[in-house]
Amino acid sequence: MKKLNIIALLAMGAAIFTSCKPEETNKPIDIETHYDMVYMLGANAIDAEGNSHWDATSPLAMTATENPDEFVAELDMVLSAENKLIKFCLTADKPWNEADFVVPALDAMVEGKSFAYLKEGVNKLAISSELRDGVGNLRDHFFGMEKGTSGRYKLVVNPVELTLTATKLSTLEEPEILEWEEGMLYLVGDLNGWAIASPTPMVRNGNVYTYEGILKAGTMKIATVFSWDGDFYRPAIDATVIGKDGIADKGVQCHAGDPDEKWAIADTGRYSLTLDITAMTMDAKWLGEE
């Protein structure tokens, strides 16, 4: 009789214990999102016609693989001044403020820069969009190259595991990259395609800066740093003309932001410019055709 009671008590305890376990059907179901294609954007997202793709509504498709979550591309990855070489996008029909971008993970970013260095092997990724991160918080981040690592690479993106696997296939020669120097000034404008990351340096002699070379018809201003947010030396009067007759007004000012005054180059040709940042004047002389 005692033996039966003990067995009964054990059975009751087991039943109670079992009833306290959560129902398996109540567990949250982790459903992965899968993608039909991954697309590339950036300076090195170059199609067969040699065009770079920057617009989220017309990105460059990668190639699907036997693994439905892996997409592959082979492309040249060459160090540049801006180093915005490649990032990824998960759609091809949404504008930038609606698209999901696949960018380097935050802990991989180079401090103070808008890029992370692409490493051989596995690189961590993150998804960024205005919907996920909030209006104004979209991460416009890219992969770039560290000096000495340029080459042709095979890139494999897995947007589910958020990894980019890079395999170097060959080495490529790197261009000379202009390094910013404190106290130096740089021309930026139609003469160099408005490339703020690689502007044209002036020659410094104390507080006087000079430039002798080609100016293209169009506009220009003078940068203090390699950033559109920095201070620029500008004409005191917007659209002050520089041409064959020299400069229309020698007055100079320096500030960041708007109004965005620029010099207007009337004639393409060779010029001599002299900027005195103490007197805040600039002189210009026409030297002839290119």
Q: What does this protein look like?
A:
The protein has 290 residues and is mainly β. It is elongated and about 65 Å long. It has 2 helices and 24 strands. The N terminus is likely disordered. The strands form 4 sheets. Strands 1, 2, 3, 4, 5, 6, 7, 9, 11 and 12 form a 10-stranded antiparallel sheet that branches. Strands 13, 14, 17, 18, 19, 20, 21 and 22 form an 8-stranded mixed sheet that branches. Strands 15-16-23-24 form a 4-stranded antiparallel sheet, with no helix packed on it. 27% of the residues are buried. A hairpin with a 6-residue loop joins strand 4 and strand 5. The chain is 8% helix and 40% strand.
Secondary structure blueprint with pairings:
Layout: H1 2-20, E1 39-46, E2 52-53, E3 60-61, E4 63-64, E5 71-77, E6 87-89, E7 101-104, E8 115-117, E9 121-128, H2 130-133, E10 142-144, E11 151-158, E12 163-171, E13 186-189, E14 200-201, E15 203-205, E16 208-215, E17 218-223, E18 232-235, E19 240-243, E20 246-247, E21 252-255, E22 263-265, E23 269-276, E24 281-288
Parallel strand pairs: 8-10, 19-22
Antiparallel strand pairs: 1-2, 1-3, 1-6, 4-5, 5-11, 6-7, 7-9, 9-12, 11-12, 13-14, 13-17, 15-16, 16-23, 17-18, 17-22, 18-21, 19-20, 23-24
